[in-house]
Specification:
Blueprint (H helix, E strand, L loop, with lengths): L14 E5 H5 L6 E4 L5 E4 L8 H7 E5 H7 L13 E6 L4 E6 L6 H14 L9 E5 L4 E3 L9 E6 L5 E5 L10 E5 H7 L14 E3 L8 E4 L1
Parallel strand pairs: 1-3, 7-10
Antiparallel strand pairs: 1-4, 2-3, 2-5, 5-6, 6-8, 7-11, 9-10, 9-12, 12-13
Length: about 220
C-alpha cells in the first residue's frame, strides 16, 4: 500500500498488538481498539490476561501497514476517534463502535480524563453518555453504504441526550447504542452546534447539509 493511498492517520510503521491467530487466519477477526494514545490493538476475541506468558503466546506485534494489508477492513475505521473500540460483524461486513471502558490503571485513567476535560471546548462533559441510533454507531465497509449523519438531536427532560440518524423512520421504534459525548461529536462534528440545548429541546433538519431547526422546547 503506497503512502499516497494510506487510509489511517497513524504512522504506517507504528507497531500494533495483534492476536497471533489472525496472522494465520484473518477471518478470526473479532474486534479492534484504538486507545487514547492512538495505538491499535487487533484481536480474535481474546483480551490481555494477568499472565504475561499467556499474553506472549496469544499476541504479537506487526507494523500497522502489515496489519492493514492482512486485514483491509481496518481501513474503514480511518475516522475512528481514539479511546474507542469496534466489534467486527463478518456477515454484514460492518463495524459496531463503542467507547472503551476504563483500564486497570486508575492513576492513568484519571490523567486521561483530566486531559480530555481540559481540552473540551463545548458545553457539558466529553465523558457524558449519549444514546445514538444504532446506524450512527456502525461503519460499513461497503462503499455503497449510505452516508451516516445525524438528523435529530434530542435533549431529554432529564438532561440526557439522544442522536438519531437519517436512516431511522420518524414514526418507528429503533435500537440505540451508548457512546461518550466526545466520541459522538468527533464522529459527527455538526452536533456541537446544538450542545447548548436545554432539557426538553429537540433540534431537527431535513438534510445533512441543512441548518439545525429548533422543533420542540
Amino acid at each position: 500500500m503506497s503512502s499516497e493511498n494510506w487510509p489511517l492517520s497513524q504512522d504506517p510503521e507504528s507497531p500494533v498488538i495483534i492476536s497471533r491467530s489472525l496472522v494465520d487466519d484473518p477471518s478470526n477477526l473479532a474486534f479492534v481498539v484504538l486507545d487514547d494514545d492512538g495505538d491499535w490493538f487487533i484481536s480474535d476475541g481474546n483480551e490481555f490476561s494477568e499472565d504475561m506468558e499467556e499474553n506472549k503466546d496469544a499476541f504479537g506485534a506487526l507494523p500497522l501497514r502489515e496489519a492493514v494489508e492482512l486485514i483491509p477492513e481496518i481501513a474503514a475505521l480511518a475516522g475512528l476517534p481514539t479511546g474507542m473500540a469496534a466489534d467486527w460483524d463478518p456477515e454484514r461486513r460492518t463495524w459496531l463502535l463503542s467507547s472503551v471502558a476504563d483500564s486497570d490503571d486508575d492513576e492513568e485513567d484519571l490523567l486521561v480524563r483530566a486531559a480530555r476535560l481540559a481540552a473540551w471546548t463545548h458545553p457539558g462533559s466529553p465523558l457524558e453518555e449519549v444514546q445514538v441510533s444504532t446506524e450512527l454507531a456502525e461503519i460499513s465497509t461497503d462503499p455503497a453504504a449510505p452516508v451516516r449523519a445525524v438528523r435529530q438531536v434530542v435533549r431529554e427532560a432529564d438532561g440526557s441526550w439522544l442522536l438519531v440518524g437519517f436512516q431511522v423512520p420518524e414514526s418507528e421504534d429503533f435500537e440505540v447504542e451508548a457512546l461518550e459525548m466526545e466520541h459522538a461529536v468527533t464522529l459527527y462534528p455538526d452536533v456541537a452546534l446544538v450542545l447548548s440545548a436545554a432539557p426538553g429541546q429537540v433540534y431537527d433538519r431535513p438534510s445533512a447539509d441543512a441548518p439545525w431547526e429548533l422543533v420542540e422546547g
